[in-house]
Specification:
Elements (H helix, E strand, L loop, with lengths): L6 H23 L5 H7 L4 H28 L2 H21 L3 H29 L5 H31 L7 H9 L1 H7 L2 H11 L6 H6 L3 H12 L2 H17 L6 H5 L2 H16 L5 H14 L4 H29 L1 H25 L7 H16 L2 H11 L6 H29 L1 H23 L8 H11 L2
Length: 470
């Protein structure tokens, strides 16, 4: 049975959807290389600089809130197309904007695209996948996010080097975008992957589980047959999904289904781990890594090099997580990885407390950070989108993921705003000890309240939540 599965087709579908994750990562990280230039060009004060950085996060929160309704009403495929349009409009608009207000508007549009794709891309991959491959295929999305981060860092570095090289561009508008105001090129280069994402989505089908919800059984069966390589398996999957839809009382409204005891519990748990995960330090390291390293006494060049090293380890470790997540299981990865995060965070706090007194070399701090990033990337970063994409019933999966995604982005926004304050008022050592402390309730929630989902079909996972409250 397993040998009949069209794995190459599943990979193709997953890679196309995961390209949305690349755009997510690029759009989020590219801002780091443009802030000082934008502030100088538009004469921004500190509040305006903060708004420039934070406006995309506000757009992301709006996008997450819209994503559930859009993906459940319009379908997963059309919603991804809409997100690709928003990324394209944002990139082109940022490159050619004439004032700061226009720049903010286009950044918010891109942020909405981030919020939408952060829900619909892993959701789509989860729904087209088969049980034994679902973890690694959904993890492709997180891998794409890390590659997007790294791609933005490298693009910023390369464009800045070209701008500083003294080479003149052939056209005046090229000189404007890539030389004299190179930040426009950094933001605008996102147009290329955004247009690729837009075009390639037309070559993938709609989610078969969404089609079943909408009563398009014949179309769903055709897609399932291509995935499973067997008419019999396609029909069995169709019948299993339809039986769960009947069990979940399809006559009820979607909000009524969400409020059923077992499903309500799943939504609450998903929301809890989504927001709690942001207070374990990962985004603080990704957003403020150079600032933290410079506070440790490193030069700007060294701090940038350290940040690139963090990006590389983050990407390579995500590849490892992708390979092992279905074999090891979601929960074990969390146990091992979060334990490593706690140790690494305590070591970082120790360095900031006694590193200068004991004259500990700076490469030791880099080692602790890389150990932290490794532990984080192989566990919560890889697992969170997998769990959120498979925890909820088919009929309300988009809406439930939207709620959890909203919590995730609220946490991201808060950690982005609070980290500088914490570093100043709690000291770096106190900040990283706080992050270590937040790891403990996360691990307890996963241990006590979440079932192991590796190797189980989406319908089996749904049955766990609905049966647990009977």
């Amino acid at each position: 049975m397993k040998s009949n599965i069209n794995f190459s087709y599943l990979v193709f579908l997953s890679v196309v959807a995961a390209l949305g994750g690349f755009l997510f990562g690029y759009d989020t990280a590219v801002i780091s290389g443009t802030t000082s230039q934008v502030a100088q060009i538009f004469q921004l004060d500190t509040l305006q600089q903060g708004w420039y950085v934070g406006c995309a996060l506000v757009g992301s929160i709006v996008g997450v809130l819209l994503s559930g309704v859009l993906s459940d009403k319009l379908g997963r495929k059309l919603t991804m197309i809409l997100s690709a349009v928003m990324f394209s409009v944002s990139a082109i608009g940022c490159a050619f904007c004439v004032d700061f207000n226009q720049l903010v508007v286009y950044r918010i549009i891109g942020g909405v695209g981030i919020g939408v794709v952060s829900v619909v891309s892993p959701l789509y991959i989860s729904e087209v996948s088969v049980a034994q491959y679902r973890g690694r295929l959904v993890s492709l999305y997180q891998l794409a996010v890390t590659v997007g981060f790294l791609g933005a860092y490298l693009m910023n570095y390369q464009l800045l080097a070209w701008s500083n090289s003294g080479v003149a561009a052939s056209d005046s508008w090229m000189d404007w975008i890539f030389i004299s105001e190179v930040w426009r090129g950094m933001l605008g280069m996102e147009t290329i992957p955004a247009l690729l994402f837009f075009l390639i989505i037309f070559f993938i089908p709609e989610s078969p589980r969404w089609l079943i919800v909408r009563g398009s059984d014949s179309r769903a069966t055709g897609i399932l047959q291509r995935i499973y390589g067997s008419v019999q398996q396609a029909v069995e999957q169709l019948n299993e999904t339809k039986s769960m839809l009947l069990t979940s009382a399809s006559s009820q409204s979607e909000w009524s289904v969400l409020l059923q005891p077992g499903i309500r519990k799943a939504v609450a748990i998903g929301t809890g781990i989504a927001i709690l995960g942001q207070f374990m330090g990962v985004n603080a390291v990704l957003y403020y890594g150079p600032f933290i390293f410079e506070n440790a006494g490193l030069s700007g060049g060294d701090s940038l090099f350290y940040q690139v090293m963090i990006g590389l380890v983050n990407t390579l470790t995500t590849v490892l997580a992708l390979v092992i997540i279905d074999k090891v299981g979601r929960k074990k990865l969390v146990y091992y990885g979060v334990s490593g995060m706690i140790i690494a965070l305590c070591c970082i706090a120790f360095y900031f407390t006694l590193g200068e007194v004991w004259q500990i070399p700076s490469w030791v701090l880099l080692f602790f950070f890389l150990a932290y990033v490794f532990s984080c990337a192989v566990s919560i970063c890889a697992v969170i989108f997998v769990l959120l994409s498979e925890m909820y019933p088919t009929r309300v999966r988009g809406l439930a993921m939207s709620i959890a995604g909203f919590a995730l982005w609220i946490g991201t926004y808060l950690i982005g705003q609070l980290t500088p304050w914490m570093l100043q008022n709690l000291t770096p050592a106190g900040t990283f000890l706080l992050f270590a402390g937040m790891c403990i309730p996360y691990m307890l929630i996963v241990w006590k309240l979440i079932p192991e989902t590796a190797g189980k079909s989406l319908e089996e996972i749904e049955r766990y939540w609905t049966d647990s409250e009977k």
